[in-house]
Design brief:
With about 350 residues, the chain is of the alpha/beta class. Helix content is about 45%, strand content about 15%.
Length: about 350
């Protein structure tokens, strides 16, 4: 693998490797946001406790203030430190920003209550990459509930850019909510952090504009739980397109917003061409991607229509609905998916 040290002049964290040094001193903070109580965190906690440097990890859980006391009995064995903080969950970005500002380590790793590290070296590989020049490290995204076409299409449309193994290297964007960053780079945004991580592609573009490097490592694997019930998946993709466009078009003039809005058929065509190229022609799950293509066409139309609404009308107060759906992911699974065991480690 080409050394990332030569890819940027951004200052590196000094050797030795970040996870070496004083015993039991936290070297990375894993952030999880949940509105569903401690039972919803049990699967991801189990995977975090299996990390080979779990005793060097600080776990920070951001929850609504009224739920903090309910986490008193949450398992904490094996970690260097565990903290539960009260946060504003009006959007996940506000909660994640509060947790980031509470960290005391050089690296922060974003995690979700519905996404599971597949390898026991997940945290260590993140830290190894951060010994180089990169300021952000992204994983390969896998399917944690592969039993339905709806789940597969959701993965391909939401995380398709990182669903195939590929090769490690610098990239323009990394997987939202599941990547790691140098803490100092994030804290530098101060009170504006929540706004810039509301849609992480905005953060990535800002980092790239400042000469920073983002790194993709396919050996860092995360199994993501996707919507598997079709009706809520339709609404999620509609609102997802709406929120993307509303954020993208901030500051645009009326004529430009109208033009982009009426261009939704072209947006849909580009997305489907990308789907075919990325997943059907050359993807790691080509057979499944081909089977799921008709549904992808339909959900792609829904997403493009949502994007048109975002360009025409702005957010219109829909951000809260979208956030509630994200937090309520377990409610939007088929009955069989709700009984899934924790994905196991891979060597």
């Amino acid at each position: 693998m080409k050394s990332i040290h030569a890819l940027s002049t951004v200052a590196r964290w000094p050797e030795p490797r970040i996870y070496e040094g004083m015993k039991n001193t936290p070297v990375a903070s894993v952030i999880v946001v949940t509105a569903d109580g401690p039972e919803a965190l049990a699967p991801v906690i189990e995977r975090l406790q299996s990390q080979d440097i779990a005793d060097r990890l600080e776990l920070i859980v951001a929850v609504p203030e009224k739920m903090v006391a309910s986490f008193d009995d949450m398992p904490t064995d094996g970690f260097a430190d565990v903290r539960v903080i009260a946060a504003d969950l009006g959007t996940s970005a506000r909660a994640r920003a509060a947790a980031i500002h509470a960290t005391r380590t050089p690296v922060v790793i974003m995690a979700e209550d519905h996404a599971f590290p597949l390898r026991d070296d997940w945290a260590r590989r993140n830290l190894d990459a951060h010994n180089g020049a990169c300021v952000g490290v992204g994983p390969r995204m896998r399917n944690a509930n592969p039993g339905t076409l709806t789940s597969w299409v959701s993965l391909f449309l939401e995380y398709g850019e990182w669903a195939n193994a590929g090769v490690a290297g610098p990239v323009r964007h990394i997987a939202g909510h599941n990547s790691s960053y140098k803490t100092g780079v994030l804290k530098a945004y101060g009170d504006g952090l929540a706004e810039i991580i509301e849609d992480e592609w905005v953060l990535h573009d800002a980092l790239a504009a400042n000469g920073h490097v983002l790194w993709y490592d396919p050996e860092i694997e995360v199994a993501h739980l996707n919507f598997s019930r079709l009706p809520p998946a339709i609404l999620l993709h509609f609102l997802g397109g709406w929120m993307f466009a509303a954020r993208r078009s901030l500051g645009w003039g009326l004529s430009r917003r109208l033009l982009y809005g009426v261009s939704f058929p072209a947006i849909w065509s580009v997305r489907m061409t990308r789907y075919l190229s990325r997943h059907v022609i050359s993807g790691d799950d080509r057979a499944m991607a081909l089977r799921a293509f008709p549904l992808a066409l339909c959900l792609g139309v829904v997403n493009a229509l949502g994007e048109a609404c975002g360009y025409w009308f702005g957010e219109c107060g829909r951000r809260g609905i979208y956030t509630d759906m994200e937090f309520g992911r377990w409610k939007n699974l088929t009955a069989s998916d709700q009984d899934l065991a924790v994905p196991g480690p891979k060597s």
